[in-house]
Amino acid sequence: ALRAVRRLRARAAVATEQALSTAHTLAIFFAIAYAWAWIVFVPMVVLRAPLEWIAVATFGPTVSALITHRVTTGSWRAFRVATTWRRTVLATATGIALMILAYVVLPGALTADPRRLHWSILASLAVYDYSTLLGGPLGEEPGWRGYALPRLERALGPVRASLVLGLFWAGWHLPLFWYPGWTSSPLWVYVLFLTGQSLILTYGTNLAGMGIITPIAMHATFNTVSRFLAGLFADTQPSARLPFVLVMALCGLGIGAALIVATRGRLAYR
């Protein structure tokens, strides 16, 4: 019995040490990610610099992941690019489909007569351009989903990790709300947007075995949503009692909630 008690105490001590180590590592990661971005965002707001400078700021999470991992482990291998290609392709296709369902199909079907919408736009490749990747996915996702997410999931579980990461993700953009024309969403709606996205992205990333190709593609798909919607509503206008951006945010939260229920809170986490 005494040996069993000692073993339990030893395990508890190891668990506590690991939790403290994870918290310390994540604190460093978020501090660097915020500092890198805000050093760019704040002068942008003050000087009204061109929006193209955002591309520089978006690499903050990835740079932070590399620095933090190097400092804490001595290695530069901060994230996984992919597992098997079959798993990556299937996870990416699923994740892209969920993003389109959440932020294009459902908002369109709920706010207009589906018969008047141009659904063929969903199969168009013309909606993509360079900003689809440079506006965040390439610079952010290796840090957010490649580095921070697996550590948050180990400490908090998939759902709480997604919610916490969604809040940090939203806060990271905070200075841009003082940049005219950057977004038409109020801050609270934007938080809802990123909360829903965070849940969906967690599911896709877990499906991919933590490979970053899938969340990069999913994030890039969301960056294309406005172009999808412009083609979808070419001959009509959305009509709803709620602002359309709020409808979109609620649809994303709805898909995120459905994934939680369908996976019993696991969000494909292993």
Q: Overview of this structure, please?
A:
This protein is mainly alpha-helical and 270 residues long. Helix content is 70%, strand content 0%. It has helices at 2-47, 54-57, 60-73, 85-111, 131-134, 137-156, 158-172, 187-207, 213-223, 225-232, 244-262.
List the SSEs and their pairings.
Layout lengths: L1 H46 L6 H4 L2 H14 L11 H27 L19 H4 L2 H20 L1 H15 L14 H21 L5 H11 L1 H8 L11 H19 L8
Helix pairs in contact: 1-3, 1-6, 3-6, 4-8, 4-9, 4-10, 4-11, 6-7, 6-9, 7-8, 8-9, 8-11
What are the low-pLDDT stretches, counting only 5+ consecutive residues below 50?
Answer: 13-17
Strand content: under 5%
User: What is the structural class?
Assistant: mainly alpha
Annotation, overall tally of beta strands: 0
Compute the average pLDDT.
Answer: 90
What gyration radius follows from the Cα positions, in whole Å? 20 Å
Please outline the major beta sheet. none
In percent, how helical is the residue content? Answer: over 70%
What is the count of helical runs?
Answer: 11
General shape: globular
What is the N-to-C succession of helices and strands?
HHHHHHHHHHH
Question: What does this entry show, briefly?
Answer:
The protein has 270 residues and is mainly α. 70% of the residues lie in helices and 0% in strands. The chain contains 11 helices and no strands.
Task: Output the keywords.
mainly alpha, globular
